[in-house]
Design brief:
5-stranded parallel β-sheet; alpha/beta; about 35% helix; elongated; 4-stranded mixed β-sheet
Length: about 525
Amino acid sequence: MFAKVNSVGLLGLDSYMVEAEVDLSQGKYRFDIVGLPDAAVSESRERVVSAIKNSGMLFEPTRHVTVNLAPADTRKEGALYDLPILTAILAATKQINADLSRSAFIGELSLSGELRRINGVLPMVIAAKENGMRVIYVPFDNADEGAIVEGIQVYPVRTIRELVSHLNGKSFIKPVPLKKFTMAAPDPLLPDFSDVKGQYEVKRALEVAAAGGHNVIMIGPPGSGKSMLAKRVSGILPDMTFNEALETTKIYSLAGELKSETPIINSRPFRSPHHTVSSVGLSGGGSIPKPGELSLSHNGVLFLDELPEFPRVTMEVLRQPMENGTITISRAACTLTYPCDVMVICAMNPCPCGYYGHPVKQCRCPKGAAAKYLAKVSGPLLDRLDIHIEVPQVEYSQLSNRAPAESSAAIRERVNKARKIQQERFSGTGINCNAKMTSGMTRKYCELSADAAKILETAFERLDLSARAYDKILRISRTIADLDGLSHISTSHIMEAVQYRSLDRKFWSMGRN
């Protein structure tokens, strides 16, 4: 007796169709699973047999059961193949009488025959639809996640008995209605920029960063508000598009961090890993690599507080992903690429005690400690951080001022207008903000007047800027012009952009003295 059931496999964010083939032959009882299964897949035999018996179905222990998961040259991982294997066995023994050719099955079984939640349902439902499946059966707790995909019916299954009854036409499971994408309403409990007293220059720099997708490093003494400011940046980022939300949700689904009450990520992520995070925790890892903090921040913010406290090897992991917007992880089993189009925000003190270069307080660090501390952040990494901004101590007069500061909503409105200009500018190119412009685009969209070019030339020579810094100044100035609603870049835009690239010369040159 033979039966074949469709399923879906995962390899990183990429999904592929899997056929669960079952052959039942006479002979001494054996239950073999072939097709490069991992340990979890091999253990399916115990879960499947127990689920069949405890659901009131028949399983003959006098047959040789052979299960093949095709394609046989791709390693299968996880317990999600329990349901297709069981369904194929029931179809082979004529306990299910239905046309399953355009249906797919994914899910982990309990010994009692209930289905348990699994990871990665969204990318698998998308793959099933793209491969011509009309119906997919998933665990009940994953149904809302799969129902955001248009063009395929998603059936939520609680138990095997429920599934068999549905397939045999005795009672029916209702498919989950299509979930329409809507932007998340502003959370009144989220930190707001109206809480921040003073720091007008820093707020302006963060507004420019949010408008153009630029990376930021803030440096200043303890208690100046660096962390407070960074935690409010996600509240001024532009609205997510549906494609951005879908990409982010796929990553969270694969990582197992998608909450059942949130079937789609419709607000930009904010991730703030502790400085003890490893390079693998940041980039992703495992025998079949799973997304790390960089990818979990995709289309959102990755905040690294106390940057010099991170291990050097962990910090250097950032360099290539910040340039390319993707991270490639190579392991013996496979090589996977995950998206990580993130806005990186770093914060740090200028020395271990925090008061190096302070206009009033005396630095208590031993001689040379500040230089050693600052040197923990490498020049190549610093060069990739677009905007450098000093965060000074807030004065008492500003702290005691009861007048309300500008809200995140007001800043976000300006950011959205600037991003809309950029979306129209880069329509059809795959670029969504000024920070991601190619060199060719930078030359095309960042033309300077003679006066502006002269200012930039002077700054380039005096500050000894790199070619990367030159391009970043142009892109930042383009963002500032977009915030002003202007098509041309003026001298004031260039001058403001240059200011955001001079801080490293102040502190790092002082540290060498």
